[in-house]
Fold this protein.
Amino acid sequence: MRRFLVSRPSPAMAVAFVALLAALSGTAIALPGTNSVDSGDIKNGQVKGKDIGKNAVTGKKVKNGSLTGADVRDNSLTGADVNESTLGQVPSANSANTANSANTANSANTANSATSAGNASTVGGNAVRVFSLLGASPQSERVVLDLDGLQLSASCAGGSVTITARTTTADSEISAFSHDASSATEAEDFDDDFNPGDVFVLPSATSTDEIGQGRFTGGNGKFVDFTYNVEDSIGTNDCVMHGFATGS
């Protein structure tokens, strides 16, 4: 009876056998178990965005201080994303606050000045007054201006306005001039000894539509310059006069 001799495979046979197994199994290599893949098992630069699940990367996975403006989409952050208490004041904001205060102060000053102007305004230290007469005939005489020793009164009859001057200061002077451009008519008058109790009727070029001006020099050293207009009827008002005066 023959015996079969058992012999070891040659080295060439062993290499061929390993190559055959590798060819049959591809490049797959069995992993030892779960959670066993580490960074050493992944080729550098091979993990792509498509390999990461949606919303899989959290804040804990991002290195602190590593994100920059280039990592955030333009105009994507809103006020809800910012902790406002951590923000400092914008450098120019304090100036804006000061400007608002200044505007408020200026508005208050302007309002106060406007109020003062309505009562008894001054320009360059000089008092300014506005006077007028408006209505239908007749208009009885009444004082329309009382400033620095000069009083102007106005009355109206038949649509014709009369302006009368009086003084409360002795040794005063007054002069006045009236002009009507439409008819080239002029009138003027003066009184260099104007005292209390005297009556000075301002000259009238025409009964309507004229411009007049005058100066009062008081015995008290005060000066009053005044300008006035006498207009034709406005609506149902045939007594129309207005003007302003400045006093030193």
